[in-house]
Amino acid sequence: MPTVSRDRYDALIFDLDGTLLDGRSKLSAAVKAEIDRVRRLGYLVVLATGRSLGGTKEVYRELGLDTEVVCYNGAWIGRPDGGAPWHYTPIPDDLIADLGGAEAHAGFHYRHHLEAKYTATTAHPHHARVSRWYTNVVHVDPAVATLPARELLRVSLFFDDEPRNESGWNALPAHARERLHREVFPLSIFPDFHDVGLVLCEVQVKGRGKAEALRYLAERHGVPAARVVAVGDQRNDLPMLEGAGLAVAMGNAVPEAKALADLVIGDHREDGVARFLADAVR
Between vectors from CA 18 to CA 236 and to CA 5, what angle results, nearest 5°? Predict the structure, then answer.
């Protein structure tokens, strides 16, 4: 295993689900101790996640971080404790109406506006369960109110299967598909939904994705990408893995991440990150 030392690297970027968090979506004591140790060595530690800001705050606070957090796959970068974000790229308002075609194919969906996730009440058997899992959910009765239609960071669409997901995406006009980006996951990758066959499609404006974390480190802290270690497990981690000086994939990572990585470490359910930091980071 290569040694990560301060003469070669200055910062580490970590994905959350499937990477820094364990099989229960929690921070283990070993991970917290190792993150604290590498920070005392002088490394900058940055979280880069597909989660919303609300879904990231608890982890950020548990780790005691003081860097900006990279949320929504790079569409929002800032401090969780308030203030104007360093980087903010919502879906262009002129595309919001186009999204209605995709939403009509979904079992249910959420529109992310500011720190809240707005959803129209449905009878779908998993809708309430997902709403309990999410943070800052606002349920809207479609008979009396409408969902926000401006400054949306993301639209999260939940489909009953992959064919419906594809039908929903293809329901968007071509000009919208050209300007938007989607990340698609089986919901079963998350510990709370191992028994659920839903497909989650997250739609945002097209951009650099989590590679924005590398731009943030370069422009805000003067750390070039060549001096950054990035750790992840899913397809949405590929942009930051591709650009980092050292790309690290989890043992549970998708094949594309492993193929791109300079190093493959242990499974997130077996403290893979903690073991990597303890063994390699000096």
Answer: 85
Q: What confidence score (pLDDT) does residue 83 get?
A: 84
pLDDT value, residue 118: 98
CATH of segment(s) 11-88+208-280 = 3.40.50.1000
| Rounded-to-integer distance, Cα 180 and Cα 3, Å | 39
* pLDDT tens, position by position, 149-206: 999 999 999 999 999 999 999 999 999 999 999 999 999 999 899 999 999 999 999 9
CATH number of the domain located at residue range(s) 93-205 in this protein: 3.30.1240.10
Closest CA to 198 of 269, 252, 127, 263: 127
Residue 75 and residue 90 in contact, taking contact as beta carbons nearer than 8 Å: yes
> Is residue 82's pLDDT more than 90?
no
> pTM (2 decimals)?
0.92
Q: What is the b/e burial string over 198-218, where b = at least 16 CB atoms within 10 angstroms of the residue's CB?
A: bbbbbbbbeebbbbbbbbbbb
The Cα 69–Cα 53 span in angstroms is 8
Reduce the DSSP state of residue 45 to 3 states and report it.
strand
Chain mean pLDDT for the chain = 96
- Closest-CA residue to 273 (of 97, 15, 5, 6): 15
Domain ranges within the chain, ordered by starting residue: 11-88+208-280, 93-205
